[in-house]
Structures are given as structure tokens and as C-alpha cells.
Write a structure and sequence with these properties.
The chain has 414 residues and is α/β, with parallel strands linked by helices. The chain contains 14 helices and 12 strands. It has a 6-stranded parallel beta sheet, with helices on both faces. Strands 2-7 form a two-stranded parallel ribbon. It has a two-stranded antiparallel ribbon with strand order 3-6. Helix 1 packs parallel to helix 4 and helix 8 runs parallel beside helix 9.
């Protein structure tokens, strides 16, 4: 291992290194380039014509290849977390996509959970034992009697732990990047994720047909749990706007609240999807998924809906959400049908198929597909987004290449 990659074992050296990284991030945050990136997102999400469509990629599992643990320098686990945070920002800046960088360091509010496992039952998965391999559900709700084990969760703000976290970060980088307390909705509106964890994906599919009362009971419980916790967190007055990150970076939402009053969900975005319900018919999807999500989603100012599922036959249902702004069109959703339905009234998040990006040995197909899609989307409000990457498949420069071509095509057909 060369000196550049040796761990910094001395705490003083580690702190100096973290501060050096923070200075680089602060410089990016203050740049004209970053201001242009934020304006690009704000324009498209406000249904204004941007200079070009914003382009963004999310490495997810591929981070282990881009920034492996052996490349990290800080030996202290907490400082290592800061190192990862800052180095990922710098890596994304080098990739060159439209990642907005904020001139502060976010520290989430800490909440104690009762029950500690949130739901009253423990979530478990069967692991394949292979690094990066598959896993299978091991659901705790195996019979109707198990439903009685579920509990409605309570989230209680812990000011002491929160303040300790704020002070610890401030002590290292607060004079470079002001530390900012942030607080978002604590549980997801994507109810299918936890429903599958609790019941199992195959039993869920069977329940909708054979035991619909069970499925309604489960989805009703999840809706009530999320709404209850949302109310608990809102009552603290700690909620903060979440319109500064990629995809949902936007103008402030619903600024009509009285001066000095606390931020509410009407000043925030929510993102939701229905991937676990992908093979379900539009009617059953609405009955067992969307109508349980609706009272959660529609509390927010604006929403984005969809992920990797095929929403081609569910477009009408998605558009029924009163606060929808972004329709997420996956690689499996018919883009032309989405365009016909949304017109100029919504933003299309045009999602790329990760396998088609990372596996080819050359970039000819990337250029062909990106040009074809950007040409088709010309005149619409849209984003180009690549997510769910689990590997770069031996192509370490692929995100740089994809980003460069996507930005070129977005500009060409702006």
C-alpha cells in the first residue's frame, strides 16, 4: 500500500485531513457552476425551461468499487464517516453530473423509537453468503395470529443526542461548512418495502387474491403507522425543507405559512413508488397500494412517484395524486405513453437502465440511446437520471462517459 492510501492513525492528522476535504467541498458549493446546477433543477421542477435537462447518477452499490474501504485514510470510524461523505461529493464533482452541493453540513435530528425495532417484530432476511449476492425474505408475519404482534411506533425527539452530534461536527468543520440541523419525514411513503419485509413478497401476491382482508389489514396498519409518526415528528417543530438535493431540488414550496411558524409537510417533497406491486394489475395496485399511500403522499407540497417498476398501465392512477410534480418513467415504462399523458403539466424523470449503461464494452449504444431519448423528450420538462447501479462491471470511467454524453444530448435537444 503506498503512502497516499495509508490510514491516518494520528487524530490530529485525521482532523486536518477532514478539514482539507471540507474546504474543497465548500469551494465547490460557492462556485458559479454549482449555482447553475441548482438553477437548472429549480427551473425544470418549477415547469420553467432550463438551459438543459439536469443529469444525475447515483452509484449505490458501485460505491464499493469507486471508493473501496482500502482507499479510506481515517482509522477512527466516526471520522471515516465524514471522510466518506466529503470524498463522495468530490468524486461526484469529478464525474461532472448535476449534483447540487450545499454550503453546510447536514446533521439529522435524533429520535428514539418505541418499539426499538419500530414495528414490534424483527425484520430478517436469508443471506446467500456471497458478497454482493442475492437474499430472500424471512418474514415475521407467517400466519394471521402474527399480526397481533405488530405495534404502532412512537418516535420521541432526543435533544441531548442531537446536540452532541451537532457539536461534534461543528468542532471539526463548523467554521468551514456551518452545521445545519435537518429533519425529514421519518418513515417512507413507499409502503411496499416494509410490507414485503413483514409478510414476504410471494405471500403478499397471494394475499391480494386469496386473503384480501389480511392484505388490507397490513396496508392499513402501515398507513396508520406512517401517519402517526409523521404527526409526532411534525409536532416537534423541527421539520426542515428538503428541496435542496438532486431530483427534487426546487424553489421553496408553499411559502404562504405565517412568519415564524414551523415548517410543515406542505413545505416539503415526498418521493414514493410501488416496485413491490409491479406485476399487480392497475385495479389491485390502486386498491392495495396507491389508496393507502395517498393520504401520506398528499400531505406534502409536491410529490414524485415511481422507480424501477413498469407504470405504463398505471399512468392514470399516478396522475390522480393531487400534488404530483414528477412522473418517474423507468426503462420499463413506455415513454411515449407517459409523454402523451403528462404533456407540459408534469416533469418526466427519464430513468436509465443500469445494465445497459455499465455492461457494454464501448459507449456507442450509450450515445445512441441517450440521443434517441433526448430527441424524443425535446420540448418536455424532464430529468435524465441513472440510479440503482450495483457495479461498474470493470468500466471505472463509465459514469464519467455516461454523464458527458447525457449532458451533451440534453444540451443538443434543449
Amino acid at each position: 500500500m503506498n503512502k497516499e492510501c495509508e490510514q491516518l492513525t494520528d487524530r490530529h492528522n485525521s482532523r486536518a485531513y477532514i478539514r482539507e476535504l471540507a474546504l474543497q467541498v465548500a469551494e465547490i458549493a460557492a462556485s458559479k457552476e454549482n449555482a447553475a446546477i441548482q438553477q437548472r433543477w429549480r427551473d425544470v421542477n418549477a415547469l420553467r425551461k432550463p438551459d438543459r435537462a439536469p443529469v444525475w447518477c447515483r452509484p449505490v452499490g458501485a460505491w464499493d468499487e469507486i471508493l473501496p474501504g482500502t482507499d479510506l485514510k481515517c482509522a477512527d470510524s466516526w471520522l471515516r464517516g465524514l471522510e466518506i461523505h466529503f470524498r463522495r461529493i468530490l468524486i461526484k464533482h469529478d464525474i461532472g453530473d448535476d449534483s447540487p452541493v450545499m454550503p453546510w453540513f447536514p446533521v439529522p435530528a435524533v429520535f428514539d423509537k418505541t418499539p426499538p425495532n419500530v414495528w414490534g417484530v424483527d425484520i430478517a432476511h436469508h443471506d446467500s453468503g456471497v458478497a454482493g449476492g442475492a437474499w430472500a425474505y424471512d418474514p415475521p408475519l407467517k400466519s394471521e395470529a402474527d399480526f397481533d404482534k405488530l405495534r404502532l411506533p412512537t418516535f420521541t425527539y432526543n435533544p441531548a443526542k442531537t446536540q452532541a452530534h451537532l457539536e461534534r461536527v461543528h468542532d471539526i468543520v463548523g467554521d468551514i461548512l456551518p452545521v445545519k440541523l435537518v429533519c425529514d419525514a421519518p418513515l417512507t411513503a413507499t409502503l411496499g418495502i416494509i410490507a414485503a419485509d413483514l409478510r414476504g413478497l410471494t405471500p403478499m401476491m397471494l394475499d391480494m387474491a386469496a386473503n384480501p382482508a389480511w392484505m388490507h389489514r397490513l396496508m392499513g396498519y402501515l398507513r396508520d403507522a406512517v401517519l402517526g409518526v409523521m404527526a409526532q415528528v411534525a409536532a416537534t417543530g423541527l421539520l426542515t425543507p428538503n428541496n435542496d438535493g438532486p431530483m427534487i431540488c426546487s424553489d421553496p414550496l408553499n411559502e404562504t405559512c405565517a412568519a415564524g411558524s414551523a415548517i410543515g409537510y406542505r413545505q416539503m417533497w415526498v418521493m414514493a413508488n410501488s416496485q413491490e406491486f409491479d406485476p399487480v394489475s392497475p385495479r389491485m395496485w390502486r386498491e392495495f397500494c396507491l389508496e393507502y399511500q395517498r393520504p401520506i403522499i398528499e400531505q406534502f407540497g409536491l410529490s414524485a412517484y415511481g422507480c424501477c417498476e413498469n407504470l405504463t398501465r398505471k399512468i392514470e392512477g399516478v396522475l390522480s395524486l393531487s400534488n404530483l410534480r414528477i412522473f418517474v418513467c423507468s426503462a420499463w415504462t413506455n415513454l411515449e405513453k407517459v409523454q402523451e399523458a403528462v404533456g407540459q403539466n408534469y416533469v418526466i424523470m427519464w430513468r436509465q437502465k443500469a445494465g445497459d449503461v455499465v455492461f457494454p464494452d464501448d459507449i456507442k449504444t450509450l450515445r445512441r440511446d441517450l440521443e434517441r431519448g433526448a430527441r424524443q423528450l425535446q420540448g418536455f420538462y424532464y430529468q435524465i437520471v441513472l440510479r440503482e447501479l450495483q457495479t461498474l462491471s470493470g468500466h471505472p470511467q463509465r459514469l464519467h462517459e455516461w454523464t458527458r454524453i447525457a449532458k451533451e444530448m440534453a444540451a443538443k435537444y434543449s
